[in-house]
Every structure is written in C-alpha cells, then in structure tokens.
C-alpha cells in the first residue's frame, strides 16, 4: 500500500504546476498528512542517496521537484539559451525592500529608495512576486504589499523566515572605521587659499599706494615719502594737529606786536 502511495505522490508532484499541498495530497492518496510527509521525506532521502540530478523539496508550504544545485551550471546554460527576461536592478531592490519590510506601502518603499516606485511595484505585481495584503489603518488607508508564494518558489524557500538575516550584509566595525577614515578631513592638514588679482583688498591697497605716490609727486615729495605718510596715518594726523596749534600761537603773537 505504501509503495503505491509513494508512486502516486511522485506522479502528482511531478505534474503539479505549483508546490503540492500535503493536505491535498493526503486526501488524494487517502492517508493522513503526517503519513504523506513521511513518505515524501523518504522519497527525498532516496533521491539524494542515489545522486539524482533533481531533488524533492518542500517550498512555500508544499512539495515540488527541482534541479539539484550541483547541476546549476548546466541548467543555467539551458535557460539562458533563449529569452532572458530578468528583473532590473531597481526591481530587485524594490522586491528586497518589500520582502524584508512587509507589509509596506508604496510611499514607504519610495521613501527608502528615494525615487518613485509606482512603475516598478506595478511590474512586480504583474509578475506575481508581490501582491496587496491589506490596508493601512492611518489616514488615506494606503495599500500594503507583501511577497507571494511565487516569490518563495523562485527563491526555493519554505517561508519568509528563511530569508537571510540583514546582519550578514552589514560590514564589520573595521570596515566601517576605514570608510569613515577615508571621508574624514585632518585638522592638521594645511589649507592653501589662493588670492585672486582684482579682489577688493588687493586692489584697494594697490590703488592707495599709487594714489599716495601720485600725491607725493604733485606736491614735490618723492613717492617714498607719500607711501610713508600712508603707512603712518595716525602719526600724520597728530603732526597736523601740532602744526595747527603752533600756527595759532604765532598768529596771536603777531597780533600782540
């Protein structure tokens, strides 16, 4: 009886277009789900022991046949000889965000990626990798999306819990330190500032020097004297005050005479 049930299970799983549900298989062969699970696990072990090019595995809650990972190179060569309808990098990024953050809305995905994701989300939904799983309780009641059983089938996973941990992709502390060191600016490193000709400071000083020299020449003084007067502006002002005071004294003396 068990041999016949095993053959029946092999045939059903072989023709199924999606992973066969153990409960449905149990109804078809008139056995308990636990007994069906035991028979399928025994079949899977026998295939592995015989070194077959295929395996009987449990994915997305059901059982299916799939090629052995040791034969991936040959299967890939066969699949790539023809149409290559692959997902774009943007679609893969969006699908990863939905897989790890589900349930999640379009706006939340767009916030994480920093770009509009309406077209990519529509493509993933049309291909059957994501679907609407509920509504947000907040204002607007945005649609929430999650992955489908087809997504689990494509990745060979039995449940979403089998996704690899995000911690496996985070670089170590030493790598983070090296990255931060490369972006850090040393305070001791000299910063060179190049002065541009014609700036207000430089131009003003040049004009002042030239003006002083011209004034000196016009009054019979040398250019050096004019420059010295410009450099000693405060002293020059004091000298004028003293001269003015002396002139006032002289004028008073003249009046008294």
Write structural notes for this entry.
The chain has 257 residues and is mainly alpha-helical. The protein folds into three domains: 2-79, Arc Repressor Mutant, subunit A, CATH 1.10.10; 89-169, Orthogonal Bundle (Arc Repressor Mutant, subunit A), CATH 1.10.10; 200-256, no CATH class. The protein has helices spanning 2-15, 22-29, 33-50, 72-80, 89-101, 106-113, 118-126, 149-155, 173-183, 200-218, 223-231, 233-256, and strands at 54-59, 62-67, 104-105, 130-135, 143-147. It has a three-stranded antiparallel sheet. Helix 2 crosses helix 3 (33-50).
Computed Rg: 44 Å
* CATH topology group of the largest domain: Arc Repressor Mutant, subunit A
Q: SSE order, as H and E?
A: HHHEEHHEHHEEHHHHH
Kindly report how far apart the N and C termini lie.
Answer: 154 Å
* Whole-number count of domains: 3
Shape: elongated
How are the strands of the largest sheet arranged? 3-5-4
CATH architectural label of the largest domain: Orthogonal Bundle
Give helix % range: 55-70%
Secondary structural class:
mainly alpha
Number of strands: 5
CATH superfamily of the largest domain, by name, is Winged helix-like DNA-binding domain superfamily/Winged helix DNA-binding domain
| Average pLDDT level | 78
Instruction: Quickly name the level 1 CATH class of the largest domain.
Output: Mainly Alpha
How many helical stretches? Answer: 12
Percentage of residues in DSSP E strands: 5-15%
């Amino acid at each position: 009886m068990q041999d016949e049930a095993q053959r029946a299970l092999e045939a059903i799983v072989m023709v199924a277009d999606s992973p066969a549900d153990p409960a449905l298989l149990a109804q078809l062969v008139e056995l308990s789900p636990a007994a069906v699970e035991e028979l399928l696990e025994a079949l899977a072990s026998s295939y592995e022991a015989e070194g077959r090019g295929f395996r009987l595995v449990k994915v997305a809650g059901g059982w299916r046949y799939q090629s052995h990972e040791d034969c991936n190179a040959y299967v890939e060569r066969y699949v790539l000889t023809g149409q290559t309808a692959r997902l774009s990098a943007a679609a893969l990024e969006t699908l990863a965000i939905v897989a790890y953050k589900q349930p999640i809305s379009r706006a939340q995905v767009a916030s994480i990626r920093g770009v509009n994701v309406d077209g990519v989300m529509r493509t993933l939904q049309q291909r059957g990798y994501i679907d609407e799983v509920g509504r947000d309780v907040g204002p607007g009641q945005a649609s929430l999306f999650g992955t489908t059983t087809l997504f689990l089938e494509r990745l060979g996973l039995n449940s979403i819990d089998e996704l690899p941990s995000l911690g496996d992709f985070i670089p170590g502390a030493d790598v983070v330190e090296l990255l931060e060191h490369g972006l850090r600016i040393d305070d001791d490193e000299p910063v060179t500032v190049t002065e541009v000709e014609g700036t207000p400071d430089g131009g003003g000083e040049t004009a002042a020097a030239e003006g002083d020299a011209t004034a000196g020449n016009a009054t019979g003084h040398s250019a050096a004297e004019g420059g010295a007067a410009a450099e000693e502006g405060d002293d020059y002002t004091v000298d004028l005050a003293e001269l003015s005071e002396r002139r006032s004294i002289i004028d008073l003396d003249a009046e008294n005479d």
